[in-house]
Amino acid sequence: MMSEPIRHILSLSGGKDSAALAVYMRDEIPEMEYIFHDTDKELPETYEYLHRLEAILGKPITKTTAERSFDNWLKIYGNMIPSNHRRWCTRMLKLKPFERYIGEDKVFNYIGLRADEDRTGYISHKKNITPIYPFQRDGKVLADIHRILEESGLGLPKYTEWGRTRSGCFFCFYQQKIEWVRLKEHYPELYEEAKAYEVPNPINGNTFYWNDNESLEQLERPERMAQIRENWEVKRARSRSQAPNQKLIQILGNAEVEEEEPEGCLICQL
Ligand code: SF4
User: Fold this and answer.
1) Closest residue (by CA) to atom 6 of ligand 1?
2) Which residues of the chain have pLDDT under 50?
3) Listed residue (206, 21, 3, 1) closest to 115, CA to CA
4) What is the CA radius of gyration of the chain?
5) What pLDDT was estimated at residue 251?
6) Residue 8, SS3 per DSSP
């Protein structure tokens, strides 16, 4: 009896780790399928990065766009913008479209979690999907990811140049306050777009914020932005004195720098 064929699928987030994994696995598994769970709310640099990655891989990246848009789902969820505790966005815009794309096929799903990360993935638990962690298998850490990206010519996503540490939706509630400040500086129109979601619910009058305790209107006050920048500088200086040999980008992406580095949208593998 012939065994069931297995599909090899690598989900890209638009971030450095999954991109490095794609480059790393390119020759090992030539039949690899590359997919990107597009929420249509990504930063422009993410689309540009994936476009360059496609050229390096020599293969197209399939977009698994959800049947309904973010705004559509938002209405269905009673205008409750997503949060760590109401994370319908990942489920509806990434996980479900991923499972639909796969169907009942047997799949090895390659995930870019590194050996120096202590995180678990927000991944599908369907029985036909087996997660594989090649970087953890091979002991690859952050420095290896930088080397893979440099050697391939891809480098880091351009959003890192203005201090954003993660891919994902421009309004992602996982971003740190300093990243909101940087979003406001670099993409004021996207900041406005994010702010426009923070409106009272027409039924009960409740307003949900992207940051649990602070509205974007409060956060954008010049004195508040200055304070967030100052706090971040202090933490960066402290982190640099603790790890003087780290490059700035490593520090920017280092959990020790910020108040908190909560688990991100790991189906997108940050
Ligand atoms: S990037 Fe953030 S906002 Fe976007 S789907 Fe993932 S968790 Fe939700």
Assistant:
1) 265
2) 248-263, 267-270
3) 21
4) 19
5) 41
6) strand
Distance 86 CA to ligand 1 centre (A): 11
Token duo for residue 173: 């509630």
Pairing of strands 106-110, 6-12: parallel
* CB neighbour list of residue 257: distance below 8 Å, 6 or more residues apart: 232, 235, 236, 239, 251
Tell me whether residue 98 is exposed, middle or buried, using C-beta atoms within 10 angstroms of its C-beta: 0 to 12, 13 to 18, 19 or more. buried
CA distance 69 to 171: 15
Binning the chain into helix, strand and coil, the percentages to the nearest 5 are 40, 10, 45
Please give the single-letter amino acid code of residue 235.
Answer: K
> Hey, which of 42, 268, 269 would you mutate to test ligand 1's pocket, going by the most ligand atoms within 8 Å of its Cβ?
268
- Predicted TM-score (pTM) of this structure: 0.86
Asked whether 15 lines ligand 1 (CB < 6 A), one says: no
Of 5, 8, 11, 197, the C-alpha closest to 97 is 11
Q: pLDDT at position 270, please?
A: 34
Q: What pLDDT does 122 receive?
A: 59
